[in-house]
Amino acid sequence: MGSTSRHQNCRSSSSGCTCFSIRFSTILTITILFTSVYVFLSTVKRGSEPFSWTKTETGFNGDLRDAKFPWNSLCFGNNFEKLKLAVFSKTWPIGAAPGGMERHAATLYHALAAKGHEIHVFTVPSDRKPHLDIHEGNLHVYFAANDHGSVNCSLAFEIFNSINANGPFDYVHTESVSLPHWRAKMVPNVAVTWHGIWYEIMHSKLFEELAFNSQEKTPRPVGELHEAMPRLVDEIRFFPSYTQHICISKSAGKVLVNIYQLPQRNVHVILNGVDETKFVHDPESGARFRRKHGIPKNVSVVMGVAGRLVRDKGHPLLYEAFSKISRTHTGVYLLVAGSGPWGKRYAELGSNVKVLGALEPSKLSEFYNAIDVFVNPTLRPQGLDLTLMEAMHCGKPVLTPNYPSIVGTVVVNQSFGYTFSPNVESFVDALKSVIKDGPIVLQNKGIACRKHALSMFTASKMADAYERFFLCMKNPRFCQYPLPTDC
């Protein structure tokens, strides 16, 4: 859908800062380190914190708004009350290129629409090209783009108001700041799902600084790191503009209560899920994929990485670590699925690396089944990459940095894979552990991964949790668990 008027930009406000003294830099660094230690320790500590995440008990009985664990772990029964939901999403996936947040949105809202709820999504196409609006049964997707291809808030709200006039929405949901905080104040019933918060982004910039800039002969000014704290403060101030907050990891939920100081009853954890009917354990499809791409039969371990091949996804770390490993372990193979500037660099590593380019979603399951272990080298400790969950559904263990969001929610113990600190030396040690364990141990870990993924990271469990959340927000009767209809 096009627009004939001048469009409003849809970005959240931020505090600008251009000049910081050495003393401020020192204070900033100390603050980051102390808050990092605090949150890390608080994820380990149990019972003494006011918002302590405990192991989910199958016998939970009470108000879901008091739950201190992911709603995905509960079993919700059939519901006969239907919802009318408005959704604001940054983009809508078109083709093979979209990232995790877009794929999450499409999976969730297709699933909710399939359950009989009326879903209206206000967004733009991920390829930034003109597309017709989508109307598929209960799912309605409205493309409201400005001249730059981003969401035009004014146009989106014109459509929103016209639909709302024909019958009010039960609730409004936004994926992160797709609905800006200054607009959210005008909406009475609004919930936001945070796929990344500035507290975690601050950690990302810290890790990038330590991993890359310190190695350069002439280090660049750490301007981004300087700007992180003011933006964090700005974010903490505007978060109360949203009524309810959904986090996709346990650690983010803890931060919103302990650092952002939001009321416990306004913070909830619902983990992302992937389509369990598309990502399945299928060794035969994996074998075909290996043959198709010429993977030798005598390789000892096949590793795989997928996603955008850019710096902040940690590809410089993987490039350096694998180049060291491949010199002494010639039987190790690396499959690289994705597009980006680091694709050409990986091709320089020789015959033990195969760069596949971006894969269509239908081919990703085959890719996961073709590898022995999935590697995620990301330097972005915010949210949770869907690739980890997809690989686990396909029965593959994972190798990933030891960020609180990951070790507290996905790789909760060593039977699911391997973790490392975000530096080359630790990464190399982890790769050596993978190679030492070999395919048989990796296969056993993969079985455990699949069992865990099916219990927590499915699209159906995610949709059930979101459905119950919105019903609970509409009618407190649905906040009680279990209901007679629950399983």
UniProtKB/TrEMBL annotation:
Residues 289-438 form the Glycosyl transferase family domain. It holds the Pfam family Glycos_transf_1. The chain crosses the membrane at residues 20-41. The keyword tRNA-binding does not apply. InterPro entries: Glyco_trans_1, Glyco_trans_4-like_N. Residues 98-276 form the Glycosyltransferase subfamily 4-like N-terminal domain. Keywords: Glycosyltransferase, Membrane, Transferase, Transmembrane, Transmembrane helix. PANTHER family: GLYCOSYLTRANSFERASE (PTHR46686:SF2). This is Uncharacterized protein. It comes from Hibiscus sabdariffa.
